[in-house]
Amino acid sequence: MDNKKYMRIIKKHGKDILASDGMKIEKTCIQHGIFSVYDHSLFVTRMCLHLADIFSIRVDTCALVRGALLHDYFLYDWHIPSKVKNTHGFTHPNTAFRNASRDFKLGIIESNMIRRHMFPLTPIPPKYRESVLLCIADKICAGYETIDGFKRRFKKRFRRLDTNA
Ligand SMILES: [Fe+2]
Ligand SMILES: [Fe+2]
Questions:
Q1: How far is the CA of 56 from the centre of ligand 1 (A)?
Q2: Structural domains in the chain plus CATH codes
Q3: Looking at the chain, which runs of residues are DSSP E strands?
């Protein structure tokens, strides 16, 4: 993955999003393992650009970047026990969409990307190429982040057993 190239594209189209107060909140909220929601959103955006590149898929790059950056703009920590936690998987696309449309001007592609990115957990499928890419990239990145978290916990436990021996 050409991170430098993708970061240039992301900054070009999403500078205002990256600098927003919402993204500051995302930096304080854990998504998976040690990844904050901000880290996850950037990872997913780079993965979207990467998938579009390797499969030569024609996309609206600006919409792809902005929709991917904002797809998890729900702005709370879903690990903190609350009523929200149990339904988070189903409800956060709409929460993210509400917050994102309050803070930014969204086009139809970005809106669809955010609202449909949890398919098939949420039943309505994504409509645009960019939304499908996001749906796939999100699952790849979430899988990677979750496995990374398990690996870290596993290593930590073995280190502890080592020092106790
Ligand atoms: Fe999500
Ligand atoms: Fe996500």
A1: 25
A2: 3-164 (1.10.3210.10)
A3: 30-32, 35-36
Q: Give the ligand whose atoms come closest to the C-alpha of residue 44.
A: 2
Q: Identity (one letter) of the amino acid at 105?
A: K
59-109 pLDDT tens trace: 999 999 999 999 999 999 888 877 566 789 999 999 999 999 999 999 999
| Contact (CB, 8 A) for 52 and 64 | yes
Whole-angstrom distance, CA of residue 165 vs CA of residue 160: 9
**Taking the CA atoms of the chain, what radius of gyration do you get in angstroms?**
17
CA of 157 to the centre of ligand 2 (A): 28
Give me ligand 2 centre to Cα 164, in Å. 38
Answer whether 0.85 is exceeded by the pTM.
Answer: yes
For residue 72, the CA-to-ligand 2 centroid distance in Å is: 5
